[in-house]
Amino acid sequence: MLQKQNNQSAWAENWPAPAKLNLMLRIVGQRPDGYHLLQTVFQFIDLCDWIIFHPVDGRRVSLQKTIPGVPEADDLTIRAANLLKAETGCQSGVCIEVEKNLPMGGGLGGGSSDAATTLVVLNKLWDLQLSVEKLMALGLTLGADVPVFVYGYSAWAEGVGEKLEAISVPEQWVVVIKPECHVNTKEIFSSKSLTRNSKSIKIADFIAGQHQNDCVEVVCQRYPSVKNALVALSEFSEARLTGTGACVFAQFDSKEAAVNAYQSLKINKWQVYLAKGLNESPLFSKLKIGKYIS
Prior knowledge:
Blueprint lengths: L3 H8 L3 E16 L5 E21 L4 E3 L12 H13 L4 E7 L10 H16 L6 H9 L5 H6 L3 E5 L3 E4 L6 E6 L6 H6 L12 H5 L8 H7 L1 H10 L5 E3 L6 E5 L2 H13 L3 E8 L3 H8 L5
Parallel strand pairs: 3-4
Antiparallel strand pairs: 1-2, 2-4, 2-5, 2-10, 5-6, 7-9, 7-10, 8-9
Helix pairs in contact: 2-3, 3-4, 8-9
């Protein structure tokens, strides 16, 4: 249980909702219900949305400011908070303030990460005492990427992305490009030309260099700006697509090399980000440093 002073300070905190990268993505089958069976590797990067939770009188869950084009009731942070209340019978309310830094529709998991931070932090603030496993199960009902953000560590993932095994991968510098398009994930996974029968591999195969993303070909056919970004980034390092995109990324062994690529690509007016790969989610690092984890 949170001690009173920790609880009070936690309400005043600015909580990170980090981005993720899919370091590879294989589609190894399809379930009868249409969901695709995947193998992927998730790693966090230190680009984050930031969330503050404001206590309120009464039971209402609300946003301090809505995202243009997204009704408040559909916002994943609101849905996550209401899901906690429905699951536990919690009578508390909250006003959620979100600073959006991650591009929407980019494959970095921004909305899913916001939802996960809401689940994890309100579980503490409201003293609900739900386990990580329970929070992951609740998160899966909000989106396939939510569980890994609740899990909090780089992971080898299977199933629809919910079967997670911790994995340590090099924490390299990363350059991310967000092309000027929004990739429709449902459209990509519905494509008849999408590969759905890739051979399953082992973690050792990924570590040995098997980094393919089975969505690349279909995405590049339908979104030329993604293909252009991959070509531009590949001049500096191995360029890859994260999830179904639209963001593409490359890893670098040194900060100097990453900064050089970042500065060169920014000149071309790309929307470019410089980041550091992290095996532990910044959210969980903050929870531990603040001694909010019992």
